[in-house]
């Protein structure tokens, strides 16, 4: 069965290159004919690992291709996920399996609602990759890929093992997603506002602690008490363990790219309002970040 990977960016390329080099059938879905032509001219995906570069000639195609899709990795940003799935929805076979590799919360539900004929499986990754050039990706950090839904683990997980893609199947995926969401809400926006690396936030615990207290309240009211346990302590651990890193949001802002704010603080604000949970600090942080983005001419959604 073919793996279709939609999105030739950092993680999509990382997955497609590893699946392809393991000899598994993969098709990379590119955005438009110009991108497809550029991809073909590049001769495939180049993956740089420990300073060694290797090109993998994974075949490319467009969303308008007629090949039915049985298994899809949706590897775009959260704000592109709905449009991306819509572009291939008529190609999805009934019972097709769709892996949703987006940070934050909200896009998973948007996609699952859009394609009820598919089995949507959320995926949360702590692997790190970045684009050095078009179709040239640096594998920057080992990590784990957590995935799962309420059904039995699928047969094809063994293909991930074959491709050397680390994974952990879990029946507790909502807890994982909410926990990561809360960590990212507590860390990423403040790194942007203080224009600092993760570790420097350890000097701003007076801001982080009350923020975590609000996030804990929000998670508890959202029925996600397990994701709320010892949140503040884990935020501190993450800040210590990733002290030298720029958060993903900080990297986006520095590079002048759109952020996933709507799927972090935007989702938190909407959720707090819907559940009538007071969240003044989260709301204020959201407004400060919006103002910061606006002042730099970056999209506010
Ligand atoms: P990216 O921006 O590098 O890649 C996304 C790709 O999807 C881009 O090439 C874009 O052109 C393409 N795309 C968007 N819409 C499309 C469409 N309709 N048709 C075809 N292609 C389309 O993003 P990324 O870094 O790979 O991140 C993907 C998700 O994974 C994000 O939610 C991110 O937060 C998350 N994530 C990334 C990393 C990382 O290290 N890069 C780590 C953990 C989680
Ligand atoms: O996930 C992250 C991100 O930057 O998005 C953290 C955990 C904050 C590490 O940088």
From TrEMBL:
Residues 176-286 form the Ketopantoate reductase C-terminal domain. GO terms for molecular function: 2-dehydropantoate 2-reductase activity; NADP binding. It holds the Pfam family ApbA. The keyword NADP applies. It catalyses: (R)-pantoate + NADP(+) = 2-dehydropantoate + NADPH + H(+). Pathway: Cofactor biosynthesis; (R)-pantothenate biosynthesis; (R)-pantoate from 3-methyl-2-oxobutanoate: step 2/2. It is an enzyme of class 1 (oxidoreductase). InterPro entries: 6-PGluconate_DH-like_C_sf, 6PGD_dom2, ApbA, Ketopantoate_reductase, KPA_reductase, KPR_N, NAD(P)-bd_dom_sf. One of its GO terms (biological process) is pantothenate biosynthetic process. Keywords: NADP, Oxidoreductase, Pantothenate biosynthesis. Its EC number is 1.1.1.169. GO terms for cellular component: cytoplasm. Signal peptide: none annotated. It comes from the Bacteria. Transmembrane segments: none annotated. Residues 3-150 form the Ketopantoate reductase N-terminal domain. Catalyzes the NADPH-dependent reduction of ketopantoate into pantoic acid. Belongs to the ketopantoate reductase family. This is 2-dehydropantoate 2-reductase. It comes from Pseudomonas mangrovi. The lineage of its organism: Bacteria, Pseudomonadati, Pseudomonadota, Gammaproteobacteria, Pseudomonadales.
């Amino acid at each position: 069965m073919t793996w279709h990977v939609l999105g030739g960016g950092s993680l999509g390329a990382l997955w497609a290159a590893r699946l392809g080099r393991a000899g598994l059938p993969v098709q990379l879905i590119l955005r438009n004919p110009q991108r497809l032509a550029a991809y073909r001219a590049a001769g495939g995906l180049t993956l740089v690992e420990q300073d060694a570069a290797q090109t993998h000639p994974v075949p490319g195609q467009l969303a308008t291709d007629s090949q039915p899709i049985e298994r899809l990795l949706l590897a775009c940003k959260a704000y592109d996920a709905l449009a991306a799935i819509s572009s291939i929805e008529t190609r999805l076979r009934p019972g097709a399996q769709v892996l949703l590799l987006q940070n934050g919360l909200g896009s998973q539900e948007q996609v699952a609602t859009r394609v009820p004929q598919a089995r949507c499986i959320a995926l949360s990754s702590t692997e790190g990759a970045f684009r050095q050039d078009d179709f040239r990706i640096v594998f920057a950090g080992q990590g784990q890929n957590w995935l799962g839904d309420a059904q039995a683990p699928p047969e094809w997980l063994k293909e991930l093992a074959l491709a050397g893609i680390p994974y952990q199947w879990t029946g507790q995926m909502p807890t994982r997603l909410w926990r990561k969401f809360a960590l990212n809400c507590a860390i990423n926006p403040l790194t942007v506002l203080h224009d600092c690396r993760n570790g420097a936030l350890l000097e701003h615990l007076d801001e982080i602690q009350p923020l975590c207290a609000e996030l804990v309240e929000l998670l508890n009211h959202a029925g996600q008490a397990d994701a709320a346990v010892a949140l503040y302590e884990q935020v501190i651990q993450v800040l210590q363990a990733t002290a030298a890193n720029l958060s993903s949001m900080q990297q986006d802002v520095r590079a002048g790219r759109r952020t996933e704010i709507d799927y972090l603080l935007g989702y938190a604000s909407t959720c707090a309002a819907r559940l009538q949970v007071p969240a003044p600090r989260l709301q204020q942080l959201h407004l400060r970040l919006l103002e910061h983005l606006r002042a730099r001419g970056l999209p506010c959604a």
